[in-house]
Amino acid sequence: MVGKGNKPSMLASTPGLAPQPQVTFSDDNGRVTAVLPTGESVEVLLYGATVISWKDKNGDEKLWLSKAAKLDGSKAVRGGIPLVFPVFGTAPDHEQTSKLPQHGFARTSRWEFLGKSTSESTPASSTAADLSVKLDFGLSSAGLDSDAKSKWPYAFNLIYSVTLGRESLTTSLVVSNDDDKPFDVQVLLHTYLRVKDISSVSITGLGSATYIDKVGGVSPPQTQSASELTISGEVDRVYTPKDGASPTEVVPVTVVEGGKTKFTVVRDNLSNVVVWNPWVDKANGLGDFEPKDGYKNMLCIEPGSVSGWQTLEAGDAFEGAQTISFSY
Ligand SMILES: O=P(O)(O)OC[C@H]1O[C@H](O)[C@H](O)[C@@H](O)[C@@H]1O
Asked: Where is the segment annotated Disordered (predicted)?
């Protein structure tokens, strides 16, 4: 394993050259943390490979994390970016995943930290190179607890990569079928974005998308006519945006707050976006959701592949990713 140890370590110094700015890194107590020389940071729990913090250079947190979230491995984390795999919600009628708990086992399994790497890029607007750091995590059937293994007895391998840039975070999941038979999966990056005040937020990029409304039962597919979505009550929708045929024609989802773009979410090979806000009653009903009025400060924009199943033949792999960007 790369970079194991309890003390912070440094990356990216090249022998013989002037010292380069370095990424500070620690892998301690079930958490992996990386900080760019310019101050941006990310923190990932090995439990669920859950991103629990993403901060900009000023230390402003970009993700919402419940004050009552369990970070001790006793329950899926309420906030940050839990990983949903291999089933979204529950699927009592889908034989392969019917025994699994809500949202599967990836978010409640202990992942392995596989290593870190840095890379440099020079943005068009600057001559100075920016560093980014990528953290890789793995989970395979061999690493599952016996309960999850008995409920989903397939040989698989997952690699989850979390890449921190100056003004972006990319999370990417690769699922491989290591079995000798096919299996079906759903994948979702259940991202809790932090906002200042949900009443001044609008979401663009979902106009003319079809969606299924899950509030009060699953609705037949509908089409969103408004170009902007605002939130003034419980929202739980599975959208299928109208992307073009090529990967470059993906329609980004933007979160605008007070007239300013706060986040831009670009999906790679993920055809759905779940939009979720529990609002008053649901938040009250969730024991680990604190403060109870925290629904005013969060919005889940969850890229995924969940409206059908990805069937992976023996030896096949599926990869999906999101990049969340912000500007100051
Ligand atoms: O409470 P959880 O299992 O974490 O699920 C939280 C939420 O996840 C997704 O956004 C689903 O669309 C919601 O229906 C669900 O309530």
From this structure: 1-25
Protein residue with its CA nearest to atom 7 in ligand 1: 276
Which of 257, 302, 313, 319 is labelled catalytic?
302
Task: Return d(Cα 151, Cα 147) in angstroms, integer.
Answer: 6
Q: Which domains does the chain have, with CATH numbers?
A: 20-326 (2.70.98.10)
Closest Cα to residue 278, out of 263, 298, 262? Answer: 298
Residues lower than pLDDT 70 in the chain: 1-20
Kindly provide the ipTM of the predicted complex, given to two decimals.
Answer: 0.98
Beta strand 191-194 with 168-177: parallel, antiparallel or unpaired?
unpaired
- By most ligand atoms within 8 Å of CB, the mutation choice from 75, 78, 102 for ligand 1 is 102
Distances from the Cα of 58 to the Cαs of 55, 115, 311, in angstroms? 8, 26, 43
The span from the CA of 232 to the CA of 164, in Å, is 32
